[in-house]
Amino acid sequence: MTTHRTDRPKKQIHLAAHFPGVNNTTVWSDPSSGSHIEFDSFVEFAQIAERGLFDFMFLAEGLRLREQAGKIYDLDVVGRPDTFTVLAALAAVTDHLGLTGTINSTFNEPYEVARQFATLDHLSEGRAAWNVVTSWDAFTGENFRRGGYLPQSERYERARTFLDAAIRLWDTWKGDEILADKASGTFISTPAPGAFEHRDSQFDISGRFNVPRSPQGRPVIFQAGDSEEGRDFAAAKADAIFSRHSHLEDGQRFYADVKGRLEGFGRRHEDLLILPAATYVLADTDAEAVELAREIRLQQVSPATAIKLLEQLWNRDLSDHDPDGPLPTVDPSENDDLIAKGRASARSHGDRLEQAERWREISRAKGLSTRETIVEVTGRQSFIGSAETIASTIDDYVQADAADGYILVPHITPGGLAPFVDHVVPLLQERGVFRTAYEGATLRENLGLREPTR
């Protein structure tokens, strides 16, 4: 049951859209699914989101195709286009939609990334945002001069100092240089590129930044880590956090925890937005949506995908396992050389064995096959129901401080966002909790965030 405060005005809901690419959320085999790499798909998706008055579009990053048992993972063969190129192109075909991209702090350098985001912010007239992420993955690191050797504590230290350096670069361009205008014989004040210097355990850089201060001061900063280090990093540095906690109680715990850390970093409650990723299944009635949701889950977890997901936990070659039979009787492998490269978490054997036992208990209790068990235990849709039910649920969750809004992940790309925009958004507008027009000129303004100080 939701509970929310009655001593404040109703919160305004923030909505965004995640272009997911081909993964376990996307039903790429559906006839209505389009290309995941052609520019027309990105344009259609972005323009639907803008028609729905969404705050921003989110584009994930993939720096290496995933592999499993030495083979390219089936759902990754579409490829992963460059984030900056796509977002810069979308700036030309949208007017208000924020353009958010994930860029890794482990394998890049501050000057280059700061310059790219400052450029995107100018091209889009103040609509750029950076989702700052880290990577532990040595497999991905093989593509770069610097491999994925950093332990978790050092990854976040590098991310922290990386962001500090980028902010210093963005903030060096000041309007304090007086120049003589020879044509008119007058003196004018013009923005001047200031010198920068940043030296620490990760970086030793100095010089002058060559892109003027952007329309929104500097790009909006997102963070997506869920560890203790990630939560502290978000509370200290981020404008918004992209979380995975889309259900009520889980979301409320996460919201209270991260918001509760802000004061310790000298920040206010409203300085950080909590925006979980959320999937949805929309139908004419709640009963139809529940049935449709089950069909979609079976499409998302095909027999072949079920075996792939099983192998990721068991860390064994299970290509001969029957997905319609029971779970394997053999325990997960203790080998730390993971069978899945580029996507699986680095669980210890104890963690893998504990989770396998949970899966077995669920399978036995409900009489489920391997595939049915994986459908049961892996990600479910966050919101299922009619338009009225979904609008009401999202509103209740936001007012109950489970989130400040949601980043929607449709299962059909690029057109799967349209039913939400056409049917749910009008109901949120009727409730007075979602905009009827863009209020601001920049992403920062539309998110209700303060302009950064220098």
How would you characterize the overall build of this protein?
The chain has 454 residues and is an alpha/beta fold. The chain has two domains: 14-172 and 208-285 and 380-446, Luciferase-like domain (TIM Barrel), CATH 3.20.20.30; 302-377, no CATH class. It is built from 14 helices and 17 strands. Strands 1-2-5-6-11-12-13-17 form an eight-stranded parallel β-barrel, surrounded by five helices. Strands 4-3-15 form a three-stranded antiparallel sheet. Strand 12, helix 7 and strand 13 form a beta-alpha-beta unit. Helix 3 crosses helix 5 and helix 10 (349-366) packs across helix 11 (370-377). Residues 176-180 and 344-349 have low confidence and may be disordered.
Helix content: 25-40%
For the record, the CATH class of the largest domain is Alpha Beta
The CATH homology group name of the largest domain = Luciferase-like domain
Strand content: 15-25%
Question: How many β strands by DSSP?
Answer: 17
Radius of gyration: 23 Å
Spatial strand sequence of the major β-sheet: 1-2-5-6-11-12-13-17
Given helix and strand content, the structural type is: alpha/beta
* CATH-assigned fold name of the largest domain: TIM Barrel
Mean pLDDT across all amino acids: 86
Determine the N-to-C terminus distance.
43 Å
Query: What does the overall shape look like?
Result: globular
Low-confidence stretches: 176-180, 344-349
Q: Describe the sheet with the most strands.
A: 8 strands, parallel, barrel
Number of domains: 2
Number of helices: 14
Q: Please tell me the CATH architecture of the largest domain by its name.
A: Alpha-Beta Barrel
